[in-house]
Amino acid sequence: MTNNGTAAARFEQPTGTGRSAGTSLSAGATGAEAPAGDRGRTSIADVVVVKIAGMAAREIPGVHDMGGGLSRTIGAVRDRVPGGRPNVGRGVKVEVGERQTAIDLELVVEYGVSIKELAADVRENVILAVERITGLEVVEVNIAIDDVRLPDDEDSSASAGDQSRVA
Description:
The protein is an alpha+beta fold.
């Protein structure tokens, strides 16, 4: 999660579940005396948190794309395949515990956008979305800016593909 790899120590790890694919929000209660809303157990898969965080990050103006170079290249190929769906989880990694989660995001930003303000806006939107939808406490959102999209990047790549370099 962080450069020194200590993020896992900052939030509660699942205890005794033996599962890493999801998290439990409530241990649940049984019996007729328990309130109806507490009868049973609720678990949320990691991929759910990944998708929520990815969607929330992409909602912020100035976020051009997400993921590192290789994952963006693979994603671009996948997006062009007929019937392919965009991967909203690209560039998102999560660790979830019993009641808490930590999130890492890799972003590509638009040129000219204040990275400090963008990071604060993305962090706030991701935390609000994940906490509201899942009920998990977000203990940290680490953001890595991997690239900057320049205004002429799209134009030059489109024209380079249309023109031959040789006559």
